[in-house]
């Protein structure tokens, strides 16, 4: 009964909003919105009414709101629903339009004419939900929205480096959140063939066993180097991803390259290539011999299997960067051109593309290709002869990527629809120095000089994640996020309604979510996350072991963890001086010299540094005696703390310290009962630092025995984190099973080069070095985001 009363109260509670700018934090920006400035509190269990004619996956809807612990339940009647979805075919001529209304009584109404419109309304709703202490609030508002362009695409190149289903699904989730509706899947290219074709198995048994980083590998060399590593999608996996995308309102368009970028398939079947057929082996950069009926039949067979997997009825034929010298040096091809009055190799390319276009059209499939398919010499290259006789088939979509922007207007004047993916604005593989955030946001798919009456011929835009230099998902995420949000707004929001500064404010919540998901790895961001802490891993100035971290919380409190060896004292003083010379809390994990050396020196002579509190775990006499070689430094440290008069707090397990949004929780301290190589290490303080954006697990020098105790202790469910500090500098700390059990995405290594390289004989405890075992485990876990103190200062915001 109490729950029902509370629910009723919450659903009617209207809270004034404290907000300097009333525009809603939605990306991409809606076409029209109005807000009252008030917030309404609602229950966490949402009943929803969706008409039966709309095919909306309820499980997916629930997943959108999972972070807020909101539960969805179907309502059989509108009157019993918190959210009512209406079908309104008169809402707009745009099939992706939607309306979203939230009243002061907490009722939510969605109107749309299509499943996509409904999904977009829910995505907007998700971005304006606020959850705090199990209370859900929503702004009282009205949104009327529709996209500026029908084509809003993201392209992933998996030929050059293969990433797999989990990565693709993650990217699809973010596309859906940003209302992008086309996944352009670049599955084949010179480095590798990534889609199962049942009629031609060598495409995967040979053509897939390579990538851009190993382009010269034979299948035997690949299997020897990467035994059992699969590098393609089965047809069942393709179907699963296509279904997954469809449930999110995304159509999938595969790219099967013709006539160039075909080295992987030609490696499997050399008879396909204009040059390779003569050599009897695959030649890199070769072209299909499109004049050979057997080659055309081969490609038709492939297209038949491909289009059966993709219900979008769209296929990208590629058509770019074909090296015509392979045709020029094949006398049979030259004779074919003479016999058929085809004057240039550009014309031969258009001729062959048109034949594939006709074949695809007979199957109900529309073709698209990079803008070389028009026969234009897009880069005005002296060795390239422009097409003279052949005209690209009507209905083909021209995908502009390079050349003078006037080529877009030229294609439109000839009657073609165009997707504008100008590489100077939309290539995600380009570094941030070349396409900075504001430049990405500034892109307008409609080029200058295009007649108003022709603007509808611009279908939209796509952003391209080419894969030459993205061998792992960390690099994919680095290049893609946050620029993906800018490109989404370029495709959805009219240029006249765009505002960069407003976008930077609206995208803040989206970027925060991406940080929590691990998509940020020190790349630039549109927004300043002023409600999260900043961490610095200090560098080793003398290439020695040490443990030194500084944290600035969101409310500008300065926290130090350990501080490193005594030789690092001056660097640490300078660093703290730049932050104001005040340390609000200094955590000491254990009294080894490489953790307390610099702090002891500062306590002896502060020289202007103010320390307000020291938090530590004081060792007993028995524990101090367990390492005679470390006892002297430890005793001196404890005595110096006492003499300083600084407030000293004895740490206990479960103790929590809070500074602003940042929480420091003690998960482990002294373990005097544990034996081990280094008793001091096994009694290290273990601490989890977290806020709403990120979390770090500091293991200090924790050893195997203490690590195993943590895995089975009262805080075992609180060990997962975003960043983990490698125990005992990675040389001999927790067990490898600890790293395999705890979930984390990035590593902090307070480590000199000689420890990292397992170079025994050069320092403390090197007889016990096991760094290579640690490194191999981290590689096994596919953790690619790693920060090393020997590489310099690391800052994580």
Strand content: 15-25%
Q: Flag low-confidence runs.
A: 1-12, 14-20, 761-766
Give me the Rg, rounded. Answer: 31 Å
* Range of helix content: 25-40%
Tell me the structural class: alpha/beta
Mean of the pLDDT scores? 92
**Biggest sheet descriptor:** 9 strands, mixed
Walk me through the structure:
By secondary structure, the chain is α/β, with parallel strands linked by helices. It contains 29 helices and 33 strands. The strands form five sheets. Strands 1, 2, 3, 4, 5, 6, 7, 8 and 9 form a nine-stranded mixed beta sheet that branches. Strands 12-11-10-17-16-15-14-13 form an eight-stranded parallel beta sheet. Strand 10, helix 4 and strand 11 form a beta-alpha-beta unit. Helix 4 packs parallel to helix 7 and helix 21 crosses helix 22. The longest helix is centred in the middle third of the chain and has 18 residues. It starts with a helix and ends with a strand. The N terminus is likely disordered.
């Amino acid at each position: 009964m109490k729950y029902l009363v509370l629910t009723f109260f919450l659903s009617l509670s209207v809270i004034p909003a404290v907000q300097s700018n009333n525009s809603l934090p939605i990306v991409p920006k809606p076409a029209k919105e109005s807000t009252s400035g008030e917030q309404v509190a609602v229950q966490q269990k949402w009943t929803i009414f969706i008409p039966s004619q709309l095919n909306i996956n309820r499980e997916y809807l629930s997943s959108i709101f999972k972070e807020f612990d909101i539960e969805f339940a179907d309502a059989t009647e509108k009157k019993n629903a918190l959210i009512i979805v209406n079908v309104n075919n008169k809402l707009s001529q745009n099939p992706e339009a939607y309306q979203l209304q939230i009243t002061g009584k907490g009722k939510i109404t969605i109107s749309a004419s299509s499943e996509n419109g409904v999904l977009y309304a829910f995505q907007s709703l998700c971005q304006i939900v606020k959850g705090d202490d199990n209370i859900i609030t929503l702004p009282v508002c009205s949104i009327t929205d529709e996209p500026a362009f029908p084509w809003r695409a993201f392209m992933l190149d998996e030929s050059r480096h293969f990433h797999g289903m989990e990565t693709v699904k993650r990217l699809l989730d973010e596309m859906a959140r940003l209302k992008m509706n086309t996944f352009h899947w670049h599955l084949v290219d010179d480095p590798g063939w990534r889609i199962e074709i049942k009629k031609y198995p060598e495409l995967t048994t040979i053509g897939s066993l390579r990538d851009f980083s190993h382009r010269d590998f034979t299948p035997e060399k690949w299997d020897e180097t990467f035994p059992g590593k699969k590098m393609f999608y089965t047809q069942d996996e393709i179907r699963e991803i296509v279904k997954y995308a469809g449930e999110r309102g995304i159509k999938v368009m595969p790219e099967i390259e013709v006539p160039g970028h075909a080295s992987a398939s030609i490696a499997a079947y050399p008879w396909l290539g204009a040059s390779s057929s003569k050599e009897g082996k695959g030649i890199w950069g070769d072209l299909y011999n499109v004049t050979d009926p057997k080659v055309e039949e081969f490609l038709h067979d492939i297209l038949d299997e491909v289009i059966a997997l993709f219900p979008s009825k769209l296929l990208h034929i590629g058509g770019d960067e074909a090296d015509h010298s392979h045709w020029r040096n094949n006398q049979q091809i030259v004779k074919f051109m003479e016999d058929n009055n085809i004057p240039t190799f550009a014309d031969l390319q258009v001729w062959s593309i048109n034949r594939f276009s006709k074949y695809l059209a007979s199957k109900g499939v529309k073709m698209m290709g990079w803008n070389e398919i028009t026969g234009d010499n897009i880069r005005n290259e002296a060795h390239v002869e422009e097409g003279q006789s052949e005209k690209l088939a009507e209905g083909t979509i021209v995908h502009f990527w390079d050349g003078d922007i006037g080529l877009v207007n030229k294609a439109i004047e000839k009657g073609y629809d165009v997707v504008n993916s100008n590489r100077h604005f939309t290539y995600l593989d380009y570094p941030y120095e070349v396409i900075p955030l504001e430049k990405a946001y500034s892109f307008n798919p409609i080029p200058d000089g295009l007649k108003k009456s022709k603007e509808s011929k611009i279908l939209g835009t796509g952003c391209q994640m080419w894969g030459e230099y993205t061998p792992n998902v960390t690099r994919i995420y680095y290049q893609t996020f946050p620029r993906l949000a800018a490109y989404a707004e370029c495709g959805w929001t009219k240029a006249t309604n765009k505002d960069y500064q407003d976008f930077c404010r609206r995208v803040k919540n989206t970027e925060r979510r991406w940080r929590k998901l691990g998509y940020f790895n020190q790349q630039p961001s549109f927004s300043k996350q002023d409600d999260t802490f900043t961490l610095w891993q200090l560098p080793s100035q003398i290439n020695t072991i040490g443990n030194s971290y500084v944290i600035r919380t969101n409310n500008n409190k300065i926290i130090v963890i350990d501080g490193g060896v005594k030789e690092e004292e001056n660097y640490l003083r300078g660093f703290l001086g730049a932050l104001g010379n005040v340390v609000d809390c200094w955590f000491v994990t254990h009294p080894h010299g490489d953790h307390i050396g610099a702090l002891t020196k500062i306590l002896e002579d502060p020289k202007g540094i103010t320390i307000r509190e020291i938090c530590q775990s004081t060792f007993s006499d028995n524990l101090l005696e367990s390492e005679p070689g470390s006892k002297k430094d430890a005793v001196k440290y404890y005595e110096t703390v006492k003499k300083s008069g600084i407030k000293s707090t004895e740490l206990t397990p479960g103790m929590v310290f809070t500074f602003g949004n940042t929480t420091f929780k003690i998960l482990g301290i002294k373990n005097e009962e544990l034996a081990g190589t280094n008793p001091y290490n096994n009694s290290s303080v273990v601490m989890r630092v977290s806020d709403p954006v990120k979390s770090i697990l500091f293991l200090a020098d924790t050893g195997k025995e203490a690590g195993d105790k943590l895995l089975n202790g009262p805080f075992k469910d609180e060990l997962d984190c975003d960043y983990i500090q490698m125990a005992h500098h990675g040389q001999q700390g927790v067990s490898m099973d600890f790293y395999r059990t705890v979930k984390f995405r990035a590593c902090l290594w307070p480590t000199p080069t000689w420890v990292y390289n397992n170079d025994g004989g050069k320092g403390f405890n090197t007889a016990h070095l096991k760094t290579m075992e640690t490194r191999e485990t981290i590689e096994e876990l596919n953790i690619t985001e790693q920060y090393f103190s020997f590489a310099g200062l690391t800052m994580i915001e």
